[in-house]
Specification:
single chain, 336 residues, mainly alpha, two-stranded parallel ribbon, 14 helices, 2 strands, globular
């Protein structure tokens, strides 16, 4: 994050043609933010980062204060109790709530309509405003004193300095652009690949076979055009650089590409090495679990989730039945 902010700040100060480096700075900053949120913060909630409750909790408080996301205590409680237990992919699961309420997706809806709704929200200023306000409320409500104090000191100092020096534009461009709209776009796309919905008529809702079927890996890339001409190789190279690399760097950061391994072994000490731990588990016979599944590419992974929503039971996944989520904090469900 520091490196990305430094690049953006230098580009802003030098101005002119140097402004072409702004997207580079934003990308590096966003990558750091998403790794903090999706990997470090996540493992802290499982008390699995350093496996010391006090240290993991303190780090979780610091991250929530810096990124202004759902306060650590609430996130830890809801994530472990609702997302890693019997309520996984039910109306009590924050992931399901985010799909049905915040994104407005529903069983029976076509894939094309789901894409229109998601893209419409991603490019909607109102969506981002509501998302940002919900993040702030979700952070502040019931947050620990340490979280409130850290956020107050940090952002109080930043706003004070920018006010005195008259550098509001630089602060907004360098820090707030990746923190708010870009972070939220990444968050939304990541949400759309996390878990598939159980098919209508699924009777067995427990056991390893069921839970493993709700999550798959996402391999970023596509097969090289072996033996084909230069045009095919140029197309493949362009797609690897312009489609797959940004998807990996900006959306599916850290261990998110093998989230299926995490749901099989949520307390694994190999969280920092999930990609290879998953492969070792696959090669050793996956120890009593069903076989692993994977999808190649971000868009096909999103299509797979959308298709599962379309085929889900409309009565079971009726958004009107969700009564426990405050409308003021609908977007807090994205922080799963």
């Amino acid at each position: 994050m520091a490196a990305g902010a430094a690049v953006s700040a230098a580009a802003w100060v030098l101005s002119g043609w140097w402004l072409v480096l702004l997207p580079v700075g934003w990308a590096v900053t966003l990558h750091g933010m998403r790794n903090l949120r999706m990997m470090i913060y996540h493992q802290c909630s499982h008390r699995n980062m350093y496996r010391r409750r006090t240290v993991d909790r303190a780090l979780g408080h610091l991250i929530s204060s810096v990124l202004v996301i759902q306060n650590f205590e609430r996130y830890s409680r809801e994530h472990v109790a609702d997302h890693h237990a019997a309520h996984h992919m039910t109306l009590r699961d924050p992931t399901v709530q985010a799909f049905l309420i915040s994104l407005g997706l529903a069983p029976g809806m076509s894939r094309e309509e789901m894409w229109r709704r998601v893209l419409g929200r991603i490019f909607s200023p109102l969506f981002h405003l509501q998302f940002a306000v919900a993040r702030a409320r979700s952070f502040w409500q019931a947050s620990a004193g340490a979280e409130k104090a850290t956020a107050t000191v940090l952002y109080g100092a930043l706003t004070g300095v920018t006010a005195v020096t008259g550098t509001w534009p630089a602060f907004l461009v360098v820090w707030c652009v990746p923190l708010v709209p870009l972070f939220q776009v990444s968050n939304t796309l990541r949400l759309c690949v996390k878990h598939t919905f159980p098919a209508k008529g699924t009777e067995v809702r427990r056991g390893r076979e069921y839970f493993a079927g709700l999550t798959n890996a996402i391999f970023i890339g596509e097969a090289a055009p072996t033996g084909r001409g230069a045009v095919a190789w140029c197309r493949w190279t362009a797609r690897m650089l312009l489609v797959h690399a940004p998807a990996r760097y900006l959306v599916l950061t850290g261990d998110t590409v093998v989230h299926d391994y995490h749901h099989r072994y949520p307390s694994s000490r190999e969280w920092h090495d999930y990609l290879f731990a998953r492969q070792r588990d696959l090669e050793s016979g996956h120890r009593g679990w069903p076989g692993y599944e994977q999808v190649w590419g971000l868009v096909p992974a999103i299509n797979r989730v959308f298709d599962s929503i379309a085929a889900a039971d409309p009565e079971e996944y009726d958004a009107a039945r969700i009564a426990s989520v405050s409308k003021r904090e609908l977007f807090a469900a994205f922080d799963d």
